[in-house]
C-alpha cells in the first residue's frame, strides 16, 4: 500500500502539467493557472490525509472538480476586491486605511462574502438589510414589496444555510 | 474544529428560529430560559448555537454601508460561472473580434506599434489603452476579467468603471507578474530607468491611485501608492520611488528631462527612432533639462549641440554619435 503522500506525488507527476494547461485555458492567465494548480494539489493532499479511501480512480475528473471550486473562489475574491475599491472611491469623504486595517477588513469581507455566495439572491438581500442595516422584517418587507411572512421565510433559509456552512 | 457528526438540518432550522426571534427584539426572560434549555438539551444544539454566535460576531465586524455595497453586488451564479469557465478558451486573435452570446461576452485582440508610433485604443468597457513606441499587447476581455498582456514596450491604462456586473478586475500581466488596477491611471513598461538596469524587469507607475503588483512566483501583492513607481522581477518587487513628473509625458508626445544624465536621456530618445545612438563616455554625465517633442527626434538631437558642449555626427540616418564638441 502506498501512503497518501506518495500516491498524491504520483498523481502530481502524471497530471500537474495537464491541470495547469486546463486551468490556463479556463482562466486565460498563466499566473493564476499556476497558483490554482498548486492550491488544487494542496487541497488533494489535505483531503487524502483526512480520508484514506479517497477515490483516485479518475484523477483528472477529481482534480477538475477541486480546481473548479478554487477557480470560482478565486474570481469571487477578485470581484469582491474590485467592488471594495470602487465602493471606497465612491465614498463622499476620503477613507484612509492602514495596510493592516485594509487587509483585516478585506479578510472579514471575504469570509462573509464566501458564506453569502451560498444564498439565493433574495435571501442574501434580506439578510444584509436585516443584519447589516438593522432594518426590521416589516421594513424589509415594505422595501422589497413582499409580505413579512416571506421575509421571515427568506431569513430562515439564510440562517439555516449559513449555519450549515459554519458548523 | 467540527466534530465528526454535524448537527441535523432540523437542529440548524431550530437555531435559525431562535435567531429570528432575537431579530424581533430583545428576548424576554422566559424566552432566554427556553433558549438555555434548548442549548443544553443536546450536544448538537449547542454546536449549532456556537455556529450562530460565530456568524453574529463575523457580521458584527463588517462596516455597515461599505459592507452592504460590497456584499450586495450582483453575482454570477455558480452555474453561469461554470458555463463561462467552460467556454472561455483563449484563442489567438489576429484582428479585433467581438463575440456576443446571451450570457457572456468575450473580446480578444492584439495590438502593436512600430518604432516611433503611438496609438490609443478604446476598450469595450470604455477604458482607454495607449501604446507607446515599439509595443505589443494582447487584450482579453471576458466575463471574469479585463486582462491586458504586455509583451514589450510601454502602455498607459485609463480604466473606466466596469460596464458589467459583477465588476471585473482590471489586470495587466507581463512575463514578470501581474498588476491589478486599484485606481484609474497607470503606466506599465518593460525596463524602467532608475531601476536595476542589468536585470530584466517590469516597471509600473501609479499615477492617481495605487496599483497592486504581484510577481509571478509570489502569492502576495505589493501596493504601489499613487505617484510612485516600482520595478519587479518574477521574484521580487524593488522598493518604490516617487514617480517623476515626466513619466507620463509621452502620452502628450513629449519627452521631459529634469537634470537628467545625457546618456539616460539619449537612451530614451533612442526608443523612438530606428538605429543606434552612441554616446561618448566623456559627455555621458553631462546634465540636460527641457521639454522635447517626440514627433521629431532628429530635431531633438540637433538642438543638443546648441545647449551642450557636444557634437552630433550622423554616419548614416541610422548611426548617430554624440561626442565632445
TrEMBL record, chain A:
Query: What range does the record give for the signal peptide?
Result: none
Q: Where is the RNA polymerase sigma factor 70 region 4 type domain?
A: 110-159
Q: Could you tell me which NCBIfam families the record lists for this protein?
A: sigma70-ECF
Give one Pfam family: Sigma70_r4_2
Could you tell me which residue ranges the RNA polymerase sigma-70 region domain spans?
Answer: 12-79
Recorded hits in InterPro entries, A to Z, give: RNA_pol_sigma-70-like (IPR039425), RNA_pol_sigma-70_dom (IPR014284), RNA_pol_sigma70_r2 (IPR007627), RNA_pol_sigma70_r4_t2 (IPR013249)
Query: What is this protein's name?
Result: Sigma-70 family RNA polymerase sigma factor
Instruction: Give the UniProt keywords, A-Z.
Output: Sigma factor, Transcription, Transcription regulation
Automatic annotation (TrEMBL), chain B:
- The UniProt record lists the FecR protein domain at 110-191
Q: Which InterPro entries match?
A: FecR (IPR006860), FecR_N (IPR032623), Ferrdict_sens_TM (IPR012373)
- The record places domain FecR N-terminal at 13-55
- Protein name as it appears in the record: FecR domain-containing protein
What is the species of this protein?
Marinobacter salexigens
- Taxonomic placement: Bacteria, Pseudomonadati, Pseudomonadota, Gammaproteobacteria, Pseudomonadales
Amino acid at each position: 500500500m502506498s501512503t497518501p503522500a506518495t500516491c498524491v506525488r504520483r498523481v502530481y507527476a502524471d497530471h500537474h502539467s495537464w491541470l495547469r494547461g486546463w486551468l490556463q485555458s479556463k482562466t486565460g492567465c498563466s499566473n493564476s493557472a499556476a497558483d490554482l494548480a498548486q492550491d488544487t494539489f494542496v487541497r488533494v493532499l489535505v483531503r487524502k490525509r483526512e480520508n484514506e479511501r479517497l477515490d483516485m480512480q479518475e484523477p483528472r475528473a477529481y482534480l477538475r472538480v477541486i480546481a473548479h471550486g478554487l477557480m470560482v473562489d478565486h474570481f469571487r475574491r477578485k470581484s469582491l476586491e474590485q467592488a471594495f475599491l470602487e465602493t471606497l472611491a465612491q465614498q463622499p469623504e476620503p477613507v484612509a486605511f492602514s495596510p493592516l486595517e485594509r487587509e483585516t477588513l478585506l479578510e472579514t469581507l471575504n469570509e462573509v462574502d464566501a458564506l453569502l455566495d451560498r444564498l439565493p439572491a433574495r435571501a442574501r438581500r434580506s439578510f444584509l438589510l436585516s443584519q447589516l442595516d438593522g432594518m426590521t422584517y416589516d421594513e424589509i418587507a415594505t422595501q422589497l414589496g413582499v409580505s413579512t411572512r416571506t421575509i421571515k421565510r427568506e431569513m430562515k433559509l439564510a440562517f439555516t444555510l449559513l449555519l450549515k456552512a459554519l458548523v | 474544529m467540527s466534530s465528526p457528526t454535524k448537527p441535523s438540518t432540523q437542529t440548524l432550522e431550530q437555531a435559525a428560529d431562535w435567531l429570528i426571534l432575537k431579530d424581533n427584539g430583545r428576548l424576554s426572560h422566559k424566552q432566554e430560559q427556553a433558549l438555555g434549555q434548548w442549548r443544553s438539551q443536546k450536544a448538537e444544539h449547542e454546536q449549532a448555537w456556537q455556529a450562530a454566535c460565530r456568524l453574529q460576531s463575523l457580521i458584527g465586524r463588517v462596516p455597515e454601508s461599505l459592507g452592504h455595497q460590497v456584499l450586495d453586488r450582483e453575482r454570477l451564479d455558480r452555474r453561469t460561472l461554470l458555463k463561462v469557465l467552460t467556454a472561455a478558451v483563449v484563442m489567438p486573435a489576429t484582428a479585433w473580434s467581438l463575440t456576443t452570446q446571451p450570457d457572456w461576452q468575450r473580446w480578444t485582440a492584439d495590438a502593436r506599434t512600430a518604432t516611433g508610433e503611438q496609438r490609443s485604443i478604446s476598450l469595450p468597457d470604455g477604458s482607454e489603452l495607449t501604446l507607446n513606441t515599439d509595443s505589443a499587447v494582447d487584450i482579453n476581455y471576458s466575463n471574469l476579467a479585463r486582462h491586458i498582456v504586455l509583451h514589450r514596450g510601454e502602455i498607459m491604462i485609463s480604466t473606466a468603471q466596469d460596464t458589467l456586473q459583477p465588476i471585473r478586475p482590471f489586470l495587466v500581466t507581463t512575463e514578470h507578474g501581474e498588476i491589478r488596477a486599484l485606481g484609474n491611471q497607470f503606466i506599465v513598461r518593460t525596463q524602467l530607468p532608475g531601476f536595476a538596469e542589468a536585470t530584466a524587469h517590469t516597471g509600473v507607475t501609479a499615477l492617481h491611485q495605487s496599483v497592486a503588483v504581484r510577481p509571478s512566483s509570489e502569492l502576495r501583492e505589493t501596493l504601489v501608492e499613487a505617484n510612485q513607481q516600482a520595478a519587479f522581477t518574477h521574484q521580487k518587487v524593488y522598493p518604490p520611488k516617487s514617480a517623476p513628473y515626466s513619466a507620463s509625458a509621452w502620452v502628450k508626445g513629449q519627452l521631459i528631462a529634469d537634470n537628467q544624465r545625457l546618456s539616460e536621456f539619449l537612451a530614451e530618445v533612442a526608443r523612438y527612432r530606428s538605429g543606434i545612438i552612441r554616446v561618448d563616455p566623456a559627455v555621458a554625465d553631462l546634465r540636460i533639462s527641457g521639454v522635447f517633442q517626440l514627433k521629431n527626434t532628429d530635431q531633438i538631437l540637433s538642438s543638443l549641440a546648441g545647449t551642450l558642449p557636444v557634437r552630433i555626427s550622423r554616419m548614416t540616418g541610422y548611426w548617430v554619435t554624440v561626442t565632445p564638441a
